[in-house]
Specification:
Blueprint: H1 2-23, H2 48-52, E1 57-60, E2 65-68, E3 86-88, E4 90-94, H3 95-167
Antiparallel strand pairs: 1-2, 1-3, 3-4
Length: 184
């Protein structure tokens, strides 16, 4: 309930900031103290700019009246003024276009956040898959290196054993490996 009451104030503040940014900083006077707030009806039959200087006012173009913004509801009811003829915050954009523009901006922000999250998840998954493939390749490389080292050590042991057999005359003739062993 409290948030529903604050929503129009937030919306009004956003429009005021938007209007100030568009109007430029030269219009903001820092030396003159702000004028006391007047009733919005006092600005009726005057200009839209004068009416909208007060943030709590809403200008209706159909009958050129300045009315208090209905803070109980987010949007002014059509009985007060139609959305296409209502101006709030700035005179050059109607309330309908303001709502549409804010909805489009909010939608773009949500879509871009969703796209960014999906892209980041995809990249993370892809990098994780690449990392796993690199680790598997590394493990296979190390396994092959160990196998080659093992074969090399086996060959060196065989050479050493053959030298010892040759030294003591136990080496069989390679031409005839089935020759009979003779005892002397």
């Amino acid at each position: 309930m409290e948030a529903a009451r604050r929503w129009p104030l937030w919306l009004q503040g956003l429009a005021l900031l938007w209007g100030r940014a568009v109007a430029g900083l030269e219009q903001i006077s820092t030396t003159v103290p702000p004028a006391p707030a007047q009733a919005c009806s006092a600005f009726s039959q005057k200009s839209c700019e004068e009416c909208l200087k007060n943030v709590s006012c809403l200008w209706c173009y159909t009958n050129s009246t300045c009315i208090d913004y209905p803070v109980r509801s987010i949007f002014p009811p059509s009985s007060l003024c139609s959305l296409s003829n209502a101006r709030w915050g700035v005179c050059w954009i109607n309330f309908e276009a303001l709502i549409i523009a804010m909805a489009v901006v909010a939608g773009l922000i949500l879509v871009s956040l969703t796209v960014c999250c999906c892209y980041c998840c995809y990249c993370r998954r892809r990098s994780r898959r690449r990392r796993l493939e690199e680790e598997e390749e590394q493990i296979a490389r190390k396994r092959e290196e160990r196998r080659l080292q093992s074969l090399q050590r086996k060959h060196e042991r065989k050479m050493k054993h053959d030298e010892i057999r040759k030294k003591y005359g136990l080496l069989q003739d390679s031409d005839n490996p089935y020759s009979r062993f003779e005892n002397e």
